[in-house]
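fyi for ur records
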Amino acid sequence: MTVEPSTDSNGRSPAEPVAIDGQAALDEFVAENDVVLADFYADWCGPCKMLEPTVERLAADTDAAVAKVDVDANQPLAQAYGVRGVPTLILFAGGEKVEEVVGVQSGDRLRSLIERYA
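which gave:
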């Protein structure tokens, strides 16, 4: 899968979550954006569905780019990051993994994590 251009014409991160397929796509997305929130999820996961509107709001309202990684379709990628439960949210800043949280999180908690690095 080809990753869509990561920034808009004003140099901002995408306003919607971007589906990621594979390690190369995630690496490229992280390299192109200063702060990336990667949401490792599964379609069958109830808590993931509860978290989805929050993740969409964060993509629209913060400087973070949001990556969506389906763990069922990307098992090697999930294993590479030690994802054992969903939802798992991994925050990247400056190309490096800086935070990881597991389970449903409040929008305020995730926003404060993002703002620490944005």
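The first helix runs from residue 23 to 32. thats all i got for now
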